[in-house]
Automatic annotation (TrEMBL), chain A:
<dbReference type="InterPro" id="IPR041662">
    <property type="entry name" value="SusD-like_2"/>
</dbReference>
<dbReference type="Pfam" id="PF12771">
    <property type="entry name" value="SusD-like_2"/>
</dbReference>
<keyword id="KW-0449">Lipoprotein</keyword>
<dbReference type="InterPro" id="IPR011990">
    <property type="entry name" value="TPR-like_helical_dom_sf"/>
</dbReference>
<protein>
    <submittedName>
        <fullName>SusD/RagB family nutrient-binding outer membrane lipoprotein</fullName>
    </submittedName>
</protein>
UniProtKB/TrEMBL annotation, chain B:
<dbReference type="Pfam" id="PF07715">
    <property type="entry name" value="Plug"/>
</dbReference>
<dbReference type="Pfam" id="PF13715">
    <property type="entry name" value="CarbopepD_reg_2"/>
</dbReference>
<dbReference type="InterPro" id="IPR023997">
    <property type="entry name" value="TonB-dep_OMP_SusC/RagA_CS"/>
</dbReference>
<dbReference type="InterPro" id="IPR037066">
    <property type="entry name" value="Plug_dom_sf"/>
</dbReference>
<dbReference type="GO" id="GO:0009279">
    <property type="term" value="C:cell outer membrane"/>
</dbReference>
<keyword id="KW-0812">Transmembrane</keyword>
<protein>
    <submittedName>
        <fullName>SusC/RagA family TonB-linked outer membrane protein</fullName>
    </submittedName>
</protein>
<feature type="signal peptide">
    <location>
        <begin position="1"/>
        <end position="20"/>
    </location>
</feature>
<comment type="similarity">
    <text>Belongs to the TonB-dependent receptor family.</text>
</comment>
């Protein structure tokens, strides 16, 4: 018996000493893939860009830029110009860098490996668009060293906004990134997106137009600082002909969402589903501006459940109107019914106003038979059509308001007319309106009531987020929200 | 100190019948002074392992070798006696009390029984009768305040809500800092699984809740990592070794014990409300306002609700209190055991039914245990026990906004919360706030139900190869399935279109332990004893979570998932990890006054890189008893023991931390969100994204090094004894997801970084101040002071958030040069002199500074004091404990200050106020703030959700427990069928005093875990009181 026990014990030991290698080889996660095809990353990136544009940053910009007023929570804070490093952490971390951009980066890597040039092309165009959001909001941001955390670059250096737009040693400019994307789209691809492309459903020609129109947007953004470079990029696009860029509302670069829970566009969800909806209300200033112009888009864009507009002034700190059910909010015409969107990132109207502004204010634009007035008219009409106005209604407006629809006066006055109309056309896209206002100073907007901020003036950039300041020495001592970004010379 | 059962167990495990010719020796052991029988006395044949313990009447009987010459009779608190066997078969033995005795035999790791004097580390144990029948169904809550070095915090008074326990502070940045739980040798899961976001969810139980306090024989607390060699890394956070009531030595007889108790619960710790002002703001009534800044009562007679009903305008002083019900806890237990030490069987049944103070909430637990011992004719001893438990829980969501508790702090003082209908005939909520639901609607229609089926048990086969050599193999299993059902009715705030969720958690832990034990006395030299233990452990842990997450419901009040149309948040997570450990323990004892113990363990873990998956950790402990070594005989100094130990423990990583991978994509939060797959234009579109964490293929184990020194001193024949301990632990190479620049595309990277230390003092004082005849007054006190300090996180990193859910701007964190778990939020701006800065145009605080440490949840010190009075069959004990310092971050109090509900906000409300602080003048100097503001602005400014205005000192004194018990005297029992009977009254959390917090600060909304000190609109605590009964047949 004793002997038997000893043998049994030795046997047990022997069994456990052998075969250990396999026994321990169980640490590869069965829960998650370590690589995925580009088609699983494209929709992620696109919706990430849409969130970057249309979630919290948009609520900030929409209050700053007088589209809406803050009635509670963070929007009420923004409305008196208060913003600091505690704001937009989620946007930077999970929508821009840790959302859209890393998705595009991984998609481009995966697509390059298989020759899926359609994906790399779209990826580069949308990466440029999303990096532009980052630099337009924060100024100098990680660019050349960004998105390589898994390659041990965990504290990427900042690239100046100037270098991002203009390029330089070791820096591919945003323009060149878009151009590279356009070249990819002209190359044979091993696979093409279908329904995973929640913008164009796999229409590569549409993506090419979007890429060229993005070049226009990027160019006009730096036009006050670098007029010659801006003009050359715009001429480069114009030279490709009208078929090369967005010329109809159907070609607008808009990210589509769904009507069901968990699929809805962020701005719709916030406005119509979330319990935070009453933190925002349409601004009295916005309603007044459109009413002064007699603009028929007001009734299309803004709700009035009680039959009249219920709004508050920006910076208002009194008792809020009741009931909240009567508040004026963005309409489903503007946001898309039931949350399907689209979240419009680059529209046909924007393109027309960019060209109009370039024609008026930039030297050496190759008009090629077009006129500033023509593009201006095109922009207003495109926006009005997009708002659901009939051509009869549009014509009636044009007839009744020649002083609005006709460019006149000095270059500066014409720019003001163009940007003011662009502002109306961009209703709901706070970031683009904020970009234009910072760039041009239009539309002219008085300071908000009870304004605080750094010095009582509108923020002209966002402060680096606290997390980055804590994690990356490159972000130490970043500029405050009252310091202008590089292209903002106005 | 009658540890009958325990002693019996030790003997039962180590004693094997001799195979030689035997004779039977029996007898009775009594107290030499008064002749009363002593049960539980160890009787061993000298030079052998043959022995037994005395039964209830002090009787014993054993089979001894024909040649046996001497019996050794020993019992805690008595002098050990040697009895010469003169050939008789019956011996009556009188034991004399040992004035020097303070020590006792206790259970340490792996069921090894040890004389307490030989331990080189601090040790405490709590007996079952100090835990049972205390009007509290959670074991951890019944331990609270009774142990030095142990910090226990309940999360709320919701039935089954989890309770956090940390022993000697926190030693791991991200790992579990809860002690290892061992039940009858079975490694027992105390995991807490969340179905909902912990910021808002209902509070599921920690799985130790599956053990009824009524079934516990004793709880031993191994505080330092000294036990780690025998149990593995997880015991580096200490271990709770629980022994349940199982087989008893009944000398072939049978015994049935029945216990029963009924307790009631009331809500406790609600703040004091004002009852002078009603709903509204700026002194105007407003029927949708959640504020009580409206007109004073008496100024208007009636108002119209938002539903159009005309109601009187008056205070409803109990509107919040009346939301809560009287809860009840009914516990019954039946235990049957029969047999002898070698062959016995036991069976126990236990049930707990709790209806909580929160409407609809409950916790039920039913268990059955069967176990026994069988000694085969060939000497192989088999032991087994299997327990089946079913626990079920129904909770309601808590937290900020969108829950009953998110609304309870926003009930205007003039709102008749419980006196008006809360839903209409269509089941829609009726409430003053049209975007939120009535709290009673929420508790009825928003729920999380859990039902856990759990089986745990062990099987051990042991054999004495030699008299001094024992080999055993033990297999243990702990397996459970926790089936959750979460339902949010259509119209709930958090899921406006409804949600019905099935969330199943499966966990299993299997352990196989081969143990070879040897012991030799008088080895090499007289008085030198040696014990050797060699062991090998094979461990496998499995986890599976399957979630079916149905959204967009169509039919109201229909919970089947067929009612849902979207399932995009569904999925499965599995985890598997394996470990093999080889361990050894060498214990030397010299003449019973000098002891040295050395341990070592090598683990190999599946969760580490294959070239770094083996790691070794040693420990050494020394104990010395000068009073025995130097034969000190003194009426003052009765006993002195000095002890010291050093230990190092390695810990592996959680599974799957080595790789970087992709996960299903989501964007946003409760403001707006999407979850892939999304549905666009009729197509379901899947989307993936990189996980936010960068994996580390070069991960290595993390280590905790601990040093401990202390002494035990007994004075005045041990009427007073003090046990003092100082400890220092150093945690290094922590496996931590270090925050990285988000511009890298990721959020964290798993790395070995950091350094954290804990220093602490533990004191345990026991005394018998009075002993006059049958009256005795005992005092037991404990004191704990722990200082934790995070020394380093990672290069360039000053702070990092803890793993878990957090609100933006309110981050439970680690921060360099702060204690673990500080909360980082927005601090009020101050000048260099530390004065608060006031905005000269508004009279309010200037904007605060984000990203600052604003609260530290770690208490400065804590202490407990138990007084017990005994007179004949009566005993009365009460436990007072305190926690001094430490902060609580409270949404609830912020709400109540902001909305003018707290009593203090009504004081001089009509008078203007001035915030404390200074105003900067044009020349850069500061003048005292003199700007008058309204009471509403004043209290609003002092509130502020994401600011230091929400932080309070959580100091609290508490009458935690009162227990009165009466055991019927044997003169009465003789006329009954009962062998013993007692009745009692008990109360839990009867009274508290928190000088700096308007409510009860012992609350932790996120439940057990490393995140502490947050009240995020959680449920309040309860006050429990009840009656109980115990009879033995």
């Amino acid at each position: 018996m004793r002997r038997l026990s000893i043998y049994t014990g030795l046997l047990l030991l022997a069994v456990t000493f052998t075969g250990c290698k396999k026994f321990f080889d169980i640490n590869d996660t069965p829960n998650s893939p370590t690589s995925v095809p580009p088609s699983l990353l494209l929709p992620t990136g696109l919706s990430g860009s849409a969130f970057s544009n249309a979630n919290e940053l948009n609520r900030f910009a929409c209050t700053i830029i007088d589209y809406q007023a803050g009635a509670g929570g963070s929007p009420a804070t923004y409305d008196i110009y208060n913003t600091n490093g505690a704001d937009f952490g989620n946007q930077w971390r999970f929508e821009i860098y840790g959302g859209a951009l890393i998705a595009y980066k991984k998609m481009i890597d995966a697509a390059d490996a298989t020759g899926a040039k359609a994906y790399t092309g779209i990826g580069k165009i949308m990466m440029a668009y999303t990096f532009a959001i980052a630099t337009d909001v924060w100024g100098d941001v990680p660019y050349t060293e960004a998105l390589q955390g898994d390659l041990d670059v965990i504290q990427p250096a900042l690239t100046t906004q100037e270098a991002m737009y203009k390029g330089g040693t070791g820096v591919t400019s945003l323009f060149d990134m878009v151009r590279a994307g356009l070249r990819d789209l002209d190359t044979v691809t091993t696979s093409s997106p279908e329904t995973d492309d929640i913008v164009y459903g796999g229409d590569i020609d549409a993506w090419k137009k979007a890429g060229n129109t993005l070049l226009l947007k990027l160019a006009i953004q730096i036009s006050k600082k670098e007029p010659a470079l801006a003009a050359s990029v715009i001429n480069e696009v114009l030279a490709k002909g009208e078929d090369a860029y967005i010329t109809s509302n159907a070609e607008t670069l808009g990210v589509n969402f769904g009507a069901s829970t968990g699929s809805q566009s962020p701005v719709y969800y916030y406005t119509y589903v979330s319990s935070f909806a009453n933190d925002l209300i349409v601004s009295t200033r916005y309603v007044n501006r459109l009413q002064a112009l007699g603009d028929p888009r007001l009734d299309k864009f803004v709700t009035k459940p009680s039959g009249s507009f219920v709004t508050i002034d920006n910076g208002f700190r009194g008792t809020l109107p009741t009931p909240t059910a009567n508040w004026s909010r963005w309409s489903s015409t503007l946001l898309g019914a039931n949350g399907v969107g689209p979240v419009k990132l680059i529209t046909n109207a924007m393109r027309a106003f960019i060209l109009a502004e370039a024609a008026v204010s930039l030297p050496g634009i190759n008009l090629g038979g077009n006129t500033a007035q023509g593009w201006y008219t095109e922009g207003i009409k495109a926006s009005m059509q997009d708002a659901g106005l009939s051509s009869l209604e549009i014509d009636a407006y044009f007839t009744a308001h020649p002083e609005v629809v006709t460019l006149s006066g000095t270059v500066e006055q014409q720019v003001e007319q163009i940007i003011t109309q662009k502002y109306i056309a961009n209703t709901g896209n706070g970031l683009e309106a904020w970009n234009d206002w910072r760039r041009t100073g239009y539309p002219v907007m008085p300071e908000h009531d009870n304004a605080v901020g750094i010095d009582g003036t509108r923020p002209v950039r966002a402060q680096y987020i606290d997390q980055e300041v804590a994690r990356n020495p490159a972000f130490k001592n970043g500029p405050l929200p009252n310091v202008k970004v590089w292209w903002d010379v106005n | 100190m009658k540890q009958t059962l325990l002693l019996w167990l030790f003997v039962a495990i180590s004693v094997m019948p001799a195979l030689a010719q035997t004779r039977t020796i029996s007898g009775k052991v009594t107290d030499a002074k008064d002749g009363s029988p002593i049960p539980g006395v160890t009787v061993i044949v000298k030079g052998t392992t043959t022995g037994t313990v005395t039964g209830a009447g002090g009787n014993f009987s054993l089979s001894a070798d024909q040649n046996a010459r001497t019996l050794i009779v020993s019992f805690v608190g008595y002098e050990t006696q040697q009895v010469n066997l003169d050939g008789g078969t019956t011996y009556n033995i009188g034991l004399k009390e040992d004035p020097k005795s303070l020590e006792e035999v206790i259970v340490t790791a792996q069921n090894i029984s040890r004389d307490k004097r030989s331990l080189g580390y601090a040790f405490e144990s709590v007996k079952g009768d100090e835990l049972a029948q205390r009007s509290e169904p959670n074991v951890l809550n019944t331990l609270n305040g009774k142990l030095a070095g142990v910090t226990i915090t309940g999360s709320s008074g919701a039935p089954g809500a989890s309770t956090n326990i940390n022993i000697r502070g926190i030693t791991s940045f991200t790992g579990s800092n809860q002690p290892l739980i061992v039940v009858d040798g079975i490694i027992f899961s105390n995991d807490l699984d969340a179905t909902e976001n912990t910021l808002f969810g209902s509070q599921p139980a920690n799985r130790l809740a599956d053990i009824s306090p009524e079934n516990i024989e004793s709880v031993s607390v191994l505080k330092g990592p000294a036990a780690a060699a025998l149990y593995g890394s997880r015991a580096s956070a200490g271990a709770l070794v629980i022994t349940t009531k199982s087989g008893k030595e009944l000398k072939g007889k049978s015994e049935v014990t029945f216990t029963s108790s009924v307790s009631f619960q009331n809500v406790s710790g609600l703040p004091k409300f004002q009852n002078q002002y009603g709903q509204g703001a700026n002194n105007d009534f407003n029927n949708t306002s959640s504020n009580s800044w409206g007109p004073a009562f008496g100024t208007i007679d009636s108002v119209t609700t938002v539903q159009g009903v005309r109601v009187p305008y008056r205070a409803y002083p109990n509107n919040v209190k009346d939301f809560f019900k009287t809860g009840s806890i009914i516990q019954n237990g039946l235990n049957f055991s029969s047999g002898t030490a070698e062959n016995n069987i036991s069976l126990s049944l236990s049930s707990t039914f709790q209806n909580g103070i929160i409407p609809e909430s409950k916790f039920d637990r039913n268990s059955v245990q069967i176990g026994g011992v069988k000694t085969l004719n060939n000497g192989v001893k088999l032991m087994t026990s299997v327990t089946y438990v079913r626990s079920s829980q129904r909770g309601v969501p808590q937290g900020n906004g969108g829950s009953a508790f998110g609304q309870l702090t926003r009930i205007p003082r003039s709102y008749d919360l419980t006196g008006m209908p809360y839903q209409d005939e269509n089941g829609k909520s009726i409430f003053y706030n049209l975007t939120q639901n009535h709290p009673l609607w929420s508790t009825e229609h928003e729920k999380l139900q859990g039902s856990t089926d759990r089986v745990f048990g062990y099987f051990t086969a042991g054999y004495n190869i030699m008299k001094w050599l024992n080999v055993s193999y033990r297999v243990t299993a702990d397996v459970y399935n926790d089936r959750r059902r979460f339902y949010n009715e259509i119209g709930s705030v958090r899921n406006p279109t409804g949600a019905t969720v099935r969330d199943n958690f499966f966990r299993s832990e299997l352990n196989g332990d081969l143990m070879i034990k040897a012991n030799k006395s008088n080895l090499f030299t007289e008085g030198l004893d040696l014990n050797v233990l060699l062991g090998q452990n094979i461990n496998q842990r499995d986890y599976q979570n399957v979630t079916l997450y149905g959204e967009e419901l169509t039919i109201p009040n229909f919970e089947n998932p067929s009612n849902a149309s979207i399932f995009s948040q569904s999925g499965e997570t599995v985890r598997k990890q394996r470990l093999i450990g080889y361990y050894g323990q060498l214990s030397f004892g010299y003449k019973n006054y000098l002891f040295l113990e050395l341990t070592g363990r090598m683990d190999q873990s599946s969760t580490l890189p294959s070239d770094k998956n083996k790691y070794f950790y040693p420990s050494a402990a020394l104990s010395f008893v000068p009073t025995d070594a130097f034969h000190i005989e003194s009426n003052v100094l009765s006993y002195l023991k000095l002890r010291a130990n050093a230990a190092k423990v390695g810990r592996d990583a959680p599974p799957y931390r080595l790789q970087t991978y992709f996960v299903g994509a989501t964007f946003g939060n409760n403001l707006a969100s999407i979850t892939y797959p999304i549905s666009v234009g009729g197509s379901s579109i899947p989307g993936f994204l990189t996980n936010t964490r960068i994996g580390s293929p070069a991960l290595s184990p993390e280590f905790v090094t601990s040093y401990e020194g202390g002494f035990n001193i007994g004075l005045f024949q041990n009427r007073v004894s003090l046990d003092a301990t100082y400890f220092y632990t150093r945690s290094s190479k922590q496996i931590f997801d270090v925050a990285v620049s988000n511009a890298s595309g990721f959020d964290t990277r798993t790395t070995n970084v950091g350094l954290m230390t804990n220093k602490g003092i533990e004191l345990v004082l026991n005394a018998t101040p009075l002993k006059i005849g049958a009256f005795q007054w005992d005092v037991s006190a404990n004191f704990t002071r722990i200082r934790n300090n995070v020394k380093e996180i990672a290069p360039g990193i000053d702070n990092a958030p803890l793993e878990g859910n957090a609100f933006i701007g309110i981050n439970p964190s680690i921060a360099v040069n702060h204690a673990y778990g500080v909360i980082i939020g927005t601090k009020n701006a101050r000048n260099d002199a530390g004065e608060l800065l006031i905005n000269p145009s508004t009279g309010l605080f200037v904007p605060g500074i984000a990203g600052e440490v604003i609260a530290d949840p770690n208490p400065d010190w804590q202490a407990g004091l138990t007084n017990t009075f005994r007179y004949k069959g009566f005993s009365l004990s009460f436990l007072i404990d305190t926690r001094q310092g430490g902060d609580i971050y409270s949404f609830s109090m912020t709400d109540l200050k902001n909305n003018g509900s707290l009593e203090i906000t009504a004081k001089d409300r009509d008078k203007p106020r001035i915030l404390p602080g200074v105003i900067q003048t044009g020349d850069g100097k500061y003048i005292k703030n003199n700007i008058q503001i309204s009471a509403q602005s004043y209290w609003g400014a002092l509130g502020g959700l994401a600011s230091e205005g929400a932080v309070y000192d959580a100091t609290v004194w508490r009458l935690r427990e009162v227990a009165f018990n009466y055991s019927l005297p044997s003169s009465v029992l003789r006329r009954t069928p009962f062998g013993a009977a007692s009745i009692g009254l008990s109360a839990h959390n009867l009274f508290f005093y928190a000088p700096h917090y308007p409510a009860d600060p012992e609350i932790n909304t996120q439940g057990a875990g490393n995140i502490r000190g947050l009240d995020l609109n959680g449920a309040p605590n309860t006050r429990n009181y009840g009656a109980n009964l115990r009879v033995t047949f």
